Structure formats: C-alpha cells, structure tokens
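Re: the request from the purification team.
They wanted to know what the chain is likely to look like in 3D before they choose a buffer screen. I agreed to run a prediction and write the result into the notebook, where they can find it.
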Amino acid sequence: MELIEKLAILGDSAKYDVSCSSSGSNRASKKGMVGNTALPGICHSWADDGRCISLLKVLFTNYCIYDCKYCVNRCSNDIKRASFTPDELCNLTIEFYRRNYIEGLFLSSAVVKSPDYTMELIIAALKKLRYEHRFNGYIHVKSIPGADLRLVHEAGLLADRISVNIELPTVSSLKLLAPQKSHESIIKPMSFVSEQIQGANELTIYRKRQTFAPAGQSTQMIIGATRDNDLTVLRLTSELYKRYKLKRVYYSAYVPVNEHKDLPALNTSPPLLREHRMYQADWLLRFYGFEANELLDETHSNFDINLDPKCDWALRNLDKFPVEINKAPLEMLMRVPGIGYQMAQKIVRARRLAPLNYEDLKKMRVVLKRARYFITCNGKYYGGIDLDTDDLYPLLAEKTDPKVYVGQISMFG
C-alpha cells in the first residue's frame, strides 16, 4: 500500500478522537534539533493571537483485536485497514513539519496483536523521532489500556502529553459495549501517570526540569452511546479531576457508525448540543467552584438543552438571588448568569474605587441580558420582574435546533 493511502485511512480513522489540546509545555529550539513547543500549544484550533495551530493526527494502525460495539475500527467491521511502520510515521511527521503543515504530532492507535506489542511500536516511533530525527516539537500520545506500566512510563518520558481514554462513564456501560476491556486496565495506567507526573513535579524543584509528560494527561468520554445521564458523567469528571489531576476531560458526541441493539440507531443525529452543555459544565467545575452535585441531582439528572448549565442552576436556586453587585463576594459573582470569571474579578477591582451602578456595568460589557435578573446595583433592581412569581425560563432559554440534541430515551427507540 502506498504511504499516501495509509495516511488517508489512518488520518480518517483518528477523527473520532477529539482530545487534541494545547500542549501546556514550553521547550525552546535547540541547536541540532528540529522544532520546539510553545505554551499556546498544538491543536486544531485558533490561538489567542489568531493563529491556526495544527498537528498531524493519525492512528498508528487501525487493525484491532477488540470488537467494541461503538468503534468504527472494531475487528468485525469490514473497513480498509492500514498500519504505519515507525520509520514511515517519523518521515511523515518530519516532512510535514519542514513544510510548515504541522507543529506537532497527536498519535493514537487501535490494538494490534496485544496492548504491549502496540505500545512497543508507538515507543519505537517516538524514539526515532526524538533521538534519530532530533524532533523537539510537541507530541501527544495515547497510552493503550492494558499495556505494561513500564511501557507507559517510557512513553511518558518521550511525549509532552499522555492520555488514556476512559471511553464510557460506567463499568456497566463498558461491559455492555466493550466487554474485552476492563475498567481496571484504564484506571490503573491513569493513576500511574498521575503519580509519575507528581513525582516529576517534585523533582523539578531540585533539578529545574520536568521530564515526564510535562503537559500532563487528559482523557475522553463518549456522550450518547449509552443511557448514562449527565449527572453520572459529571460526577465521574469531577472525580477524575480531583483524584488524578487531569488537565482536561474531553467529551465526544457519539456518531452512530455501527448497527447494534445496544446502540443508538444509525439514522440518529450525534448529540452535539449535549456535548456542548457538558463542556460548559466542565468549565464550571474547573474554574467557577461548582460541584457536580450542585449542578445536577437525582431529581434533575440531565441538563436542560435550552439553558446553559449556570442558568439552569440559577433557576433552581432563585432563593440565592438577587445579589448586590457592590457587596457580593467574588465566589458568588461568578455564579451570576452573564458574569464570567474574568468579569467577576474586574467588578471586584472596580468597586474598590467607587460603587458601581447599572451604567457602569454596561460600560464594562457585562452580559446584562441575563445578569440583570440576578443582581441589584446600589440596592436597585433592574430585572423588571418578580423573582418569586414570574417565570424566568422563557427569558433565558436559548433557541436551539431540536435535531442537534437527541434525548436519552428517543435515541434508543
């Protein structure tokens, strides 16, 4: 098979892995080496300065010994198969970099022969890139669940970021759709990587250098392949951040590619809006001080598709509002719909000099379309409604295309 054909197959096979992120590592160019890394990172997105940052995103192989029901690369699927050699992957990466097509490599893989064999192939490619081709750019590598931890450690010494995809949010879901995989084979390397990163951070104090996965680790969950509700996903996300100190948890709306009784029908649209709501909630967990059980509970286990999660929470906690813009603590200001993390800090700094009024908030570009219902300025309320009797929902609900979000029940008929 021609190399260009392999690239087409393995590049297309990697499109369902969404966990490409900024690198988080900073490594200057070195004499005799190719490339560098920068804090803005390597990803398929726009940087703060407007640059489009890209990387070579491929699978090492799409041959797989597993038959996961949700995966397009499952061994029972009749699809074109291909596999790189370590030399082919290295040459592609270097040539693409020299032509300014990419700034780094995102490498994942299906499992060929065994997890250890696959990891050995990946490590062989990374070693060639780092040592033979002197590639100094960003590398994000996916660890293969079930691989020996010594191989995981070796990969972490070569890559900037390492990740293990958790795929499904519950053990029962994993048993249902991927019975050949085990929960332990995913959590064990995740815990190991977390410990190694922590150890490297502690050594950095003395050596002034962090050598193991300096950009940390991340993971990905599929949203909508099973009946698991948003509360289950959010609780798992919170636990992953707290226990394993992940840089990011990524969410991937399930795209129906296989027909099976345990999966959504093939004509079902991916739950893209639900994915979007999970990313919004994830942001609230990481930066706004929310807990999973605050945003959702057993009686309200899924986000309202017509409300962003902060508005959803606010409508269920109207007893906490309105808050006085000149007195409310920073933590409470950040919970006001329409006031973000940076804006809350800006308000706190500004009110130290003089009391803020409604016109001041307009000049500061607070999103008053939402915020005005939840705040007072110098004791005056500008919402124009009675929070105790009037219905805020129609005023805050977003207009959404129902085809973009597929409900939990309708997805499974």
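For the purification team: Residues 183-207 form the longest helix (25 residues).
Please add any questions underneath this entry.
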